[in-house]
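Re: the 424-residue chain
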Amino acid sequence: MTVSKAFLKQNRKKRLEQGHPWVYPGEIEKIEGDPQGGDVIHIVNHAGHFLAQGFYNPLSQLIIRVVTYSEVEVDETLFYDKLEQAWKRRQWLLPTATSCRVVHGEADFLPGIIIDKYEDVLVVQILSLGMEMRRQWIYQALKKLFNPRGIYERSDVPVRRLEGLEEREGFVEEPFDTHVTVIENGLKILVDVAEGQKTGYFFDQRENRAALKPLMTGWGLSHGIKVDETGKPKSASGREIKNPFWNGAEVLDCFSHTGSFMLHACHYGAKKVTCLDISEKAIEMAKENALLNGFLHRTEFVAANAFDFLREQVKEKKTWDVVILDPPAFAKNKQAIESAVRGYKEINLQGMKLVRPGGILVTASCSYHLSASRFFKMLQEAAIDAHKVLRLIEFRRAGIDHPVLLGSEETDYLKFAIYEVFER
């Protein structure tokens, strides 16, 4: 069978040669052959030199998504091999993890598909036409590789419509209990793969949540507690402190979802964590997770709009040792970036005001349209307006099961920063 060819323009920016996995319509000089949506097409330069193979979709602004840089046949065997390679990478880098992201789309050279493993359950999200047309290859390969208890599809995202696809979700074969308890950093976390956000949970912050460990203790002195000569902690009035977590931080966890940061804060010694999310359902699951790990007595839960709650707490002059801000992606596209920056600035400005002098701000953004440099600039602007000085402890990105392609800034989406906050 003759494979169609897409000839790229001579004077284009050489993005594909630099490792970018997409071709846009404006980069194509001509197409040779009669490719249909979802077909494999060869990508060649202006002189006809082979560059890559990709899935073609004339309805999408991502008209070609690269699937391989070789001229190998794109068949079921190739898909199995790619999925196996992705899983072996996770086993190598996360040898003790039983739950993780197995496939991260383009960064695993499987464009437009996300696969998360929750113990013995798999969740699949198909985002591109090329993958949609080969979904049975994917499911057959996953059954061979993992023999899962069940597979659930979460292709219930509006971005599919940009590919000419309807949204879809549900059991791939037989129904099963969609509540799964995963183990992360020694914690038990209940996940609902059918009802939770995205595919049910956010594996990309695994290592970032573990980074809370040194921040959760060492706060007793700032709370007015001193240790006497016998080693007993006592209040300023001399009263003995019985709370075993007297040296732990008081933490505000905003946009908590089902409580993953809250759980880690408690696990690492926090004295008290206030868990805030707008979703009643998420808050209920966060409570279940706190109970599951024995932390319910050190937690409180608030279902409210974070913007309103933060402003109210500032008015009431409430403060915490550590404030965590892990909001959803405010910028869904380039057009929304300025509005998103205003939103990020507002929550960070109010969050900084709620941090006690010398306390900690933990802040993140998962909007890939917001660059790291713009993220830092936004934080600096918020700090100026809040009359604060920030000192960086650590800057991190997504976990190692969420690989980044150097030539594709879209795969480098998560920004995560930990700052000390001082009065100015």
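The mean pLDDT is 95.
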